[in-house]
Amino acid sequence: MDEKALASDGGDLVEEIRGWARELGFSQLGVSDIDLSEHEDHLQRWLAAGYHGEMHWMASHGAKRSRPEELVPGTCRVLSLRMDYLSDGAEPFAVLGDPNKAYIARYTLGRDYHKLIRKRLAQLAKRIEQRMGGGHYRAFVDSAPVLERALAERAGLGWIAKNTLLISQEAGSWFFLGEIYTDLPLPPDPPQSTKHCGSCQACIDICPTNAFVEPFVLDARRCISYLTIEHKGSIDPELRPLMGNRIFGCDDCQLVCPWNKFAAPSAEPDFQPRHSLDDQGLLELFAWDEATWATRTEGSALRRIGYERWLRNLAIALGNAPSTTAVIDALRQRKDFPSELVQEHVQWALERHGAE
Hints:
Layout: H1 3-23, E1 28-32, H2 37-48, H3 68-71, E2 77-84, H4 92-96, E3 101-104, H5 113-132, E4 137-140, H6 148-154, E5 159-160, E6 166-167, E7 175-182, H7 202-206, E8 212-214, E9 217-218, H8 224-230, E10 246-248, H9 252-255, E11 280-281, H10 282-286, H11 290-296, H12 306-319, H13 325-333, H14 340-352
Parallel strand pairs: 3-10
Antiparallel strand pairs: 1-2, 2-7, 3-11, 4-7, 5-6, 8-9
Protein backbone atom coordinates (compact mmCIF):
# COMPACT_ATOMS: atom_id res chain seq x y z
CA MET A 1 0.00 0.00 0.00
CA ASP A 2 1.57 3.31 -1.08
CA GLU A 3 1.29 6.67 0.73
CA LYS A 4 -1.67 7.82 -1.40
CA ALA A 5 -3.57 4.64 -0.60
CA LEU A 6 -2.66 4.91 3.08
CA ALA A 7 -3.99 8.43 3.16
CA SER A 8 -7.46 7.14 2.22
CA ASP A 9 -7.47 3.64 3.70
CA GLY A 10 -4.84 3.92 6.45
CA GLY A 11 -7.40 4.57 9.16
CA ASP A 12 -9.08 1.24 8.46
CA LEU A 13 -5.69 -0.47 8.53
CA VAL A 14 -4.82 1.08 11.89
CA GLU A 15 -8.12 -0.18 13.32
CA GLU A 16 -7.32 -3.62 11.98
CA ILE A 17 -3.91 -3.47 13.68
CA ARG A 18 -5.54 -2.35 16.93
CA GLY A 19 -7.73 -5.46 16.79
CA TRP A 20 -4.70 -7.70 16.36
CA ALA A 21 -2.99 -5.93 19.26
CA ARG A 22 -5.97 -6.59 21.54
CA GLU A 23 -5.88 -10.27 20.56
CA LEU A 24 -2.24 -10.33 21.72
CA GLY A 25 -3.09 -8.88 25.14
CA PHE A 26 -2.35 -5.21 24.57
CA SER A 27 -4.80 -2.72 26.00
CA GLN A 28 -4.11 0.20 23.70
CA LEU A 29 -2.21 1.10 20.52
CA GLY A 30 -1.40 4.52 19.14
CA VAL A 31 0.50 5.71 16.07
CA SER A 32 2.85 8.68 16.19
CA ASP A 33 5.15 10.60 13.93
CA ILE A 34 8.81 10.86 14.99
CA ASP A 35 9.10 14.55 15.95
CA LEU A 36 10.50 14.46 19.49
CA SER A 37 12.32 17.81 19.36
CA GLU A 38 10.58 19.16 22.45
CA HIS A 39 11.48 16.05 24.44
CA GLU A 40 15.04 16.10 23.11
CA ASP A 41 15.60 19.51 24.69
CA HIS A 42 14.20 18.28 28.01
CA LEU A 43 16.42 15.18 27.89
CA GLN A 44 19.55 17.23 27.24
CA ARG A 45 18.83 19.53 30.19
CA TRP A 46 18.20 16.51 32.44
CA LEU A 47 21.45 14.84 31.38
CA ALA A 48 23.42 18.07 31.76
CA ALA A 49 22.22 18.32 35.35
CA GLY A 50 23.57 14.82 36.05
CA TYR A 51 20.19 13.54 37.22
CA HIS A 52 20.75 10.22 35.40
CA GLY A 53 23.46 9.17 37.87
CA GLU A 54 25.20 5.97 36.79
CA MET A 55 22.75 5.33 33.94
CA HIS A 56 25.43 6.24 31.41
CA TRP A 57 23.52 4.60 28.57
CA MET A 58 21.05 7.50 28.78
CA ALA A 59 23.75 9.74 27.32
CA SER A 60 25.80 7.29 25.28
CA HIS A 61 23.75 7.07 22.09
CA GLY A 62 23.88 10.66 20.91
CA ALA A 63 20.59 11.76 19.38
CA LYS A 64 19.36 8.24 18.59
CA ARG A 65 17.14 8.24 21.66
CA SER A 66 15.17 11.28 20.53
CA ARG A 67 15.49 10.77 16.77
CA PRO A 68 13.98 7.41 15.81
CA GLU A 69 15.11 7.69 12.20
CA GLU A 70 18.74 7.70 13.37
CA LEU A 71 18.24 4.58 15.47
CA VAL A 72 16.41 2.73 12.70
CA PRO A 73 16.98 4.39 9.30
CA GLY A 74 13.81 4.77 7.29
CA THR A 75 11.52 5.01 10.32
CA CYS A 76 8.66 7.44 9.81
CA ARG A 77 6.09 6.12 12.30
CA VAL A 78 6.13 4.46 15.70
CA LEU A 79 3.43 2.19 17.06
CA SER A 80 3.23 2.59 20.85
CA LEU A 81 1.48 -0.14 22.78
CA ARG A 82 0.26 -0.40 26.35
CA MET A 83 0.03 -3.63 28.36
CA ASP A 84 -1.48 -3.43 31.84
CA TYR A 85 0.30 -5.23 34.68
CA LEU A 86 -1.64 -4.47 37.88
CA SER A 87 -2.00 -7.80 39.66
CA ASP A 88 -3.96 -9.30 42.51
CA GLY A 89 -2.19 -9.91 45.77
CA ALA A 90 -1.39 -8.25 49.07
CA GLU A 91 -2.52 -4.66 49.56
CA PRO A 92 0.57 -2.50 48.87
CA PHE A 93 0.03 0.00 51.71
CA ALA A 94 -0.34 -2.89 54.15
CA VAL A 95 3.05 -4.26 53.11
CA LEU A 96 4.68 -0.83 53.20
CA GLY A 97 3.18 -0.28 56.63
CA ASP A 98 4.70 -3.46 58.07
CA PRO A 99 8.44 -2.85 58.64
CA ASN A 100 9.05 -6.59 58.90
CA LYS A 101 7.79 -7.17 55.36
CA ALA A 102 9.68 -6.61 52.09
CA TYR A 103 8.18 -4.26 49.54
CA ILE A 104 8.86 -5.17 45.90
CA ALA A 105 7.63 -2.97 43.06
CA ARG A 106 4.40 -4.29 41.57
CA TYR A 107 5.76 -4.54 38.04
CA THR A 108 8.26 -7.23 38.97
CA LEU A 109 6.14 -9.58 41.07
CA GLY A 110 5.42 -11.86 38.12
CA ARG A 111 7.43 -12.96 35.12
CA ASP A 112 9.91 -10.65 33.45
CA TYR A 113 7.84 -8.51 31.10
CA HIS A 114 10.65 -7.92 28.58
CA LYS A 115 10.50 -11.31 26.88
CA LEU A 116 6.73 -11.59 27.03
CA ILE A 117 6.04 -8.19 25.46
CA ARG A 118 8.88 -8.45 22.94
CA LYS A 119 7.46 -11.76 21.69
CA ARG A 120 3.96 -10.27 21.34
CA LEU A 121 5.32 -7.21 19.53
CA ALA A 122 7.23 -9.44 17.13
CA GLN A 123 4.03 -11.39 16.44
CA LEU A 124 2.17 -8.17 15.73
CA ALA A 125 4.93 -6.86 13.47
CA LYS A 126 4.91 -10.14 11.55
CA ARG A 127 1.19 -9.92 11.03
CA ILE A 128 1.43 -6.35 9.72
CA GLU A 129 4.26 -7.35 7.40
CA GLN A 130 2.21 -10.22 6.01
CA ARG A 131 -0.83 -7.99 5.60
CA MET A 132 1.20 -5.33 3.76
CA GLY A 133 3.41 -7.71 1.82
CA GLY A 134 6.58 -6.09 3.12
CA GLY A 135 7.89 -3.10 5.04
CA HIS A 136 10.39 -2.76 7.86
CA TYR A 137 9.49 -3.26 11.52
CA ARG A 138 11.64 -3.21 14.68
CA ALA A 139 10.20 -3.97 18.10
CA PHE A 140 11.59 -2.56 21.35
CA VAL A 141 10.88 -3.10 25.05
CA ASP A 142 13.45 -1.21 27.15
CA SER A 143 16.03 -2.74 24.82
CA ALA A 144 17.36 0.27 22.91
CA PRO A 145 17.68 4.05 23.21
CA VAL A 146 13.96 4.80 22.89
CA LEU A 147 12.04 7.67 24.52
CA GLU A 148 9.05 5.44 25.12
CA ARG A 149 6.97 7.85 27.21
CA ALA A 150 7.55 10.71 24.78
CA LEU A 151 6.51 8.51 21.87
CA ALA A 152 3.45 7.25 23.75
CA GLU A 153 2.42 10.83 24.48
CA ARG A 154 2.83 11.67 20.78
CA ALA A 155 0.66 8.64 20.01
CA GLY A 156 -2.12 9.83 22.31
CA LEU A 157 -1.78 7.12 24.96
CA GLY A 158 -1.54 9.59 27.83
CA TRP A 159 0.51 12.42 29.27
CA ILE A 160 3.89 12.52 31.00
CA ALA A 161 2.90 13.47 34.52
CA LYS A 162 4.53 15.29 37.43
CA ASN A 163 6.02 11.97 38.58
CA THR A 164 7.57 11.61 35.07
CA LEU A 165 5.47 8.50 34.36
CA LEU A 166 2.90 8.22 31.60
CA ILE A 167 -0.68 8.45 32.83
CA SER A 168 -3.75 7.39 30.91
CA GLN A 169 -7.12 8.94 31.77
CA GLU A 170 -8.69 5.52 31.27
CA ALA A 171 -6.09 3.29 32.90
CA GLY A 172 -3.84 5.23 35.29
CA SER A 173 -0.16 4.27 35.13
CA TRP A 174 0.14 0.58 36.03
CA PHE A 175 1.26 -0.54 32.59
CA PHE A 176 4.25 -1.38 30.41
CA LEU A 177 5.04 0.25 27.09
CA GLY A 178 6.48 -1.28 23.93
CA GLU A 179 7.20 0.13 20.49
CA ILE A 180 7.37 -0.92 16.86
CA TYR A 181 9.42 1.33 14.58
CA THR A 182 8.28 1.16 10.96
CA ASP A 183 8.71 2.78 7.56
CA LEU A 184 4.99 2.32 6.91
CA PRO A 185 3.48 5.86 6.68
CA LEU A 186 0.34 5.14 8.68
CA PRO A 187 -1.91 8.08 9.63
CA PRO A 188 -0.80 9.22 13.10
CA ASP A 189 -3.21 9.50 16.00
CA PRO A 190 -3.80 12.91 17.61
CA PRO A 191 -1.04 13.49 20.16
CA GLN A 192 -1.85 14.08 23.81
CA SER A 193 -1.68 17.87 24.05
CA THR A 194 -2.89 18.43 27.61
CA LYS A 195 -1.78 17.28 31.03
CA HIS A 196 -4.31 16.45 33.70
CA CYS A 197 -2.34 16.63 36.94
CA GLY A 198 -3.80 20.04 37.78
CA SER A 199 -2.68 21.35 41.14
CA CYS A 200 -2.25 17.84 42.56
CA GLN A 201 1.24 16.99 43.74
CA ALA A 202 0.52 13.90 45.80
CA CYS A 203 3.35 12.06 44.02
CA ILE A 204 5.87 14.77 44.90
CA ASP A 205 4.75 14.99 48.53
CA ILE A 206 4.84 11.21 49.11
CA CYS A 207 8.33 10.57 47.69
CA PRO A 208 10.34 9.13 50.62
CA THR A 209 13.66 10.62 49.47
CA ASN A 210 12.43 13.90 47.93
CA ALA A 211 13.70 12.80 44.54
CA PHE A 212 11.60 15.29 42.59
CA VAL A 213 13.56 18.48 41.96
CA GLU A 214 10.34 20.07 40.73
CA PRO A 215 7.20 18.80 38.99
CA PHE A 216 8.11 16.72 35.93
CA VAL A 217 11.82 16.56 36.93
CA LEU A 218 13.23 13.53 38.78
CA ASP A 219 16.73 13.34 40.22
CA ALA A 220 17.25 9.62 39.72
CA ARG A 221 20.20 9.65 42.13
CA ARG A 222 17.72 10.02 45.01
CA CYS A 223 15.01 7.74 43.61
CA ILE A 224 14.58 4.44 45.47
CA SER A 225 13.95 2.60 42.20
CA TYR A 226 17.32 3.82 40.92
CA LEU A 227 19.11 3.14 44.21
CA THR A 228 17.83 -0.42 44.61
CA ILE A 229 18.08 -1.46 40.95
CA GLU A 230 20.46 0.67 38.87
CA HIS A 231 23.00 1.80 41.47
CA LYS A 232 25.75 -0.78 41.82
CA GLY A 233 27.77 0.47 44.76
CA SER A 234 27.31 1.73 48.30
CA ILE A 235 24.06 3.59 48.95
CA ASP A 236 24.34 7.00 50.58
CA PRO A 237 23.97 6.48 54.37
CA GLU A 238 21.73 9.57 54.53
CA LEU A 239 19.25 7.95 52.15
CA ARG A 240 19.21 4.48 53.73
CA PRO A 241 16.80 5.30 56.59
CA LEU A 242 14.40 6.88 54.07
CA MET A 243 14.19 3.68 52.02
CA GLY A 244 12.18 1.89 54.67
CA ASN A 245 11.37 -1.70 53.65
CA ARG A 246 11.56 -1.12 49.87
CA ILE A 247 14.03 -3.70 48.55
CA PHE A 248 13.38 -3.53 44.80
CA GLY A 249 11.90 -0.42 43.26
CA CYS A 250 9.31 1.93 44.69
CA ASP A 251 5.66 2.52 43.80
CA ASP A 252 4.77 5.34 46.17
CA CYS A 253 4.21 7.96 43.48
CA GLN A 254 1.82 5.60 41.68
CA LEU A 255 0.04 4.37 44.78
CA VAL A 256 -1.13 7.89 45.68
CA CYS A 257 -1.97 9.02 42.14
CA PRO A 258 -5.72 9.74 41.89
CA TRP A 259 -5.77 8.58 38.26
CA ASN A 260 -4.92 5.03 39.32
CA LYS A 261 -8.45 4.56 40.64
CA PHE A 262 -9.20 3.80 36.98
CA ALA A 263 -6.56 1.08 36.71
CA ALA A 264 -7.98 -2.38 36.08
CA PRO A 265 -6.27 -5.66 37.04
CA SER A 266 -4.32 -7.27 34.23
CA ALA A 267 -5.75 -10.32 32.51
CA GLU A 268 -2.21 -11.58 31.84
CA PRO A 269 -1.54 -14.57 34.16
CA ASP A 270 2.24 -14.15 33.87
CA PHE A 271 1.98 -10.85 35.75
CA GLN A 272 0.46 -12.44 38.86
CA PRO A 273 2.75 -12.59 41.93
CA ARG A 274 5.03 -15.60 42.19
CA HIS A 275 6.57 -17.18 45.30
CA SER A 276 4.41 -14.88 47.51
CA LEU A 277 6.76 -12.01 46.72
CA ASP A 278 3.91 -9.58 47.25
CA ASP A 279 3.80 -10.47 50.94
CA GLN A 280 7.14 -11.85 52.12
CA GLY A 281 9.01 -11.20 55.33
CA LEU A 282 12.44 -9.55 55.26
CA LEU A 283 13.99 -12.32 57.36
CA GLU A 284 12.72 -15.03 55.03
CA LEU A 285 14.21 -13.33 51.97
CA PHE A 286 17.48 -12.47 53.72
CA ALA A 287 17.89 -16.15 54.61
CA TRP A 288 17.83 -17.27 50.96
CA ASP A 289 21.17 -18.65 49.87
CA GLU A 290 22.33 -17.89 46.36
CA ALA A 291 20.95 -21.13 44.94
CA THR A 292 17.52 -20.46 46.42
CA TRP A 293 17.63 -16.87 45.17
CA ALA A 294 18.51 -18.09 41.66
CA THR A 295 15.64 -20.57 41.68
CA ARG A 296 13.03 -18.18 43.07
CA THR A 297 13.97 -15.33 40.72
CA GLU A 298 14.22 -17.41 37.56
CA GLY A 299 12.35 -15.66 34.77
CA SER A 300 11.93 -12.55 36.90
CA ALA A 301 13.16 -8.98 36.51
CA LEU A 302 14.58 -9.36 40.03
CA ARG A 303 17.49 -11.20 38.45
CA ARG A 304 18.75 -7.88 37.15
CA ILE A 305 20.34 -6.80 40.42
CA GLY A 306 22.16 -10.03 41.26
CA TYR A 307 22.43 -11.73 44.63
CA GLU A 308 24.93 -9.27 46.11
CA ARG A 309 22.71 -6.21 45.65
CA TRP A 310 19.71 -8.27 46.76
CA LEU A 311 21.45 -8.75 50.12
CA ARG A 312 22.58 -5.09 50.19
CA ASN A 313 19.00 -3.89 49.80
CA LEU A 314 17.66 -6.34 52.36
CA ALA A 315 20.35 -5.34 54.86
CA ILE A 316 19.17 -1.72 54.62
CA ALA A 317 15.55 -2.76 55.11
CA LEU A 318 16.54 -4.85 58.15
CA GLY A 319 18.42 -1.84 59.50
CA ASN A 320 15.12 0.02 59.29
CA ALA A 321 13.10 -2.82 60.86
CA PRO A 322 12.22 -3.02 64.56
CA SER A 323 15.07 -4.20 66.78
CA THR A 324 14.47 -7.85 67.59
CA THR A 325 16.74 -10.73 68.45
CA ALA A 326 15.82 -12.44 65.18
CA VAL A 327 16.76 -9.39 63.10
CA ILE A 328 20.07 -8.86 64.86
CA ASP A 329 20.97 -12.57 64.67
CA ALA A 330 20.19 -12.65 60.94
CA LEU A 331 22.39 -9.64 60.29
CA ARG A 332 25.24 -11.09 62.36
CA GLN A 333 25.13 -14.26 60.28
CA ARG A 334 25.89 -12.14 57.18
CA LYS A 335 28.70 -10.07 58.78
CA ASP A 336 31.39 -12.09 57.04
CA PHE A 337 29.62 -12.53 53.72
CA PRO A 338 32.35 -12.48 51.02
CA SER A 339 31.40 -9.07 49.65
CA GLU A 340 32.61 -5.74 51.01
CA LEU A 341 29.41 -4.14 49.72
CA VAL A 342 27.20 -6.49 51.72
CA GLN A 343 29.45 -6.30 54.79
CA GLU A 344 29.27 -2.49 54.80
CA HIS A 345 25.48 -2.40 54.72
CA VAL A 346 25.12 -5.22 57.25
CA GLN A 347 27.44 -3.35 59.63
CA TRP A 348 25.39 -0.18 59.16
CA ALA A 349 22.22 -2.11 59.93
CA LEU A 350 23.70 -3.63 63.08
CA GLU A 351 24.80 -0.20 64.28
CA ARG A 352 21.25 1.04 63.75
CA HIS A 353 20.16 -1.60 66.23
CA GLY A 354 22.97 -0.78 68.67
CA ALA A 355 24.59 -4.14 67.98
CA GLU A 356 27.91 -5.33 66.59
